[in-house]
Amino acid sequence: MELENLREEIKKTDLEILGLMKRRLDLAKEVGLQKIMDGKDVIDPSVEEAVIGRYRTFAEENGMDPDRTEEMCKILIEESVILQKSLR
Hints:
Chorismate Mutase Domain, subunit A
């Protein structure tokens, strides 16, 4: 595949990733609203640990760096927490 074609594929993939991030935030908003109705705290360390664990396992199984993948996961969690806190 030519360099320009590869770059175009990366561009398309980046847009797909961003779309999925948006979807994740939309779902996090729904979770936040449900937490409000249930009187639950925004932050649940056991849930965050489970999510991080899923990311690390996926990374290990797919030849990715688990530490870097965990960093990306923590950024997504942080964005979700910020969004959920803004709902209160």
